[in-house]
Amino acid sequence: MKIIFFLSKAVAGLSVFVCFYLVFVANPFRIRDSSGLDVSGVLTDREIPEFRLYDFGNFLFTKSSLLGKPYLIYFVYGNCKSVCSVGISKLEKYASRNALSAYDLALISLNPEKDRKEDSNLFRSVAHWKKAPLLLFPENRSEAESLARSFRISVFSGSEDEILHSDLLFVTEGNGKFAAVIPDFSETKQDLSSVFTRTFRGN
C-alpha cells in the first residue's frame, strides 16, 4: 500500500511539473518587457495554419472561413478542470461586452469525440452565453492535438480525460493572420477589452 501511495504522489508531482513547464516555459509567445514584467498581449503578423474543422451541424470550417471577420480563437475541452475552464468563464464575460461585438468567438475542442455530443460538458458550459461561441471539432483527439501544436500550443495527454496544454488566446483581424496572442489568458488579471479593441482598430 505504501508503494502505491508514493507512486500516486510521484505521478501527481509529475503532472504539476508538466503543467508548470507547458504554461511557463514552453509557451513560445511568452515575452517580458525591459523591467521583466509580463505583457498582456503579443502583437504578431503570423499566418494562421491551414485546418479543417466541423461545427455542431457538421458544416466544414476552414482557414478561409476566418477571412473578412475578426475572431477570438481558444482551445478547450469540456472536462477541463484547470486553465481552459477558467478561460471559458472569462471569455463569456468578454464576449458579452459591446466593445467586443465585432468579434466572433471560436472554441476549438481538444477532445472532439466527447465534446461534440449535445449533452457534453462543453456544450452545457456555453449554452447560456449571451453571445453564443462557435464550437469547432477536429476529426479526433489526435488531430486536435496536432492542430494545437501547429498553433504553437504545447499539449500533453495526461490521461483519457486530462489534457494538459498551454493557455493562449488568439486574436485575428479577418486577413488570414494572427493579429495578437494573449499568453496565459486564464491567469492574467488585466482587463483585456482595450487590448482587443486597440488591436482590431490597428492603433
From TrEMBL:
Q: Name one GO molecular function term.
A: metal ion binding
Keyword set, alphabetical order: Copper, Disulfide bond, Membrane, Metal-binding, Transmembrane, Transmembrane helix
Q: Which Pfam families match?
A: SCO1-SenC (PF02630)
Cysteine-cysteine disulfides:
80-84
Residues that span the membrane, as ranges:
6-26
Which positions in this protein are listed as binding Cu cation? 80, 84, 165
- Give the matching SUPFAM superfamilies: Thioredoxin-like
Q: Does the keyword Transmembrane helix apply?
A: yes
KW Signal (keyword) present: no
Q: Which family does it belong to?
A: Belongs to the SCO1/2 family.
Name of the featured protein:
SCO family protein
In its UniProt entry, the species of origin is given as: Leptospira ellisii
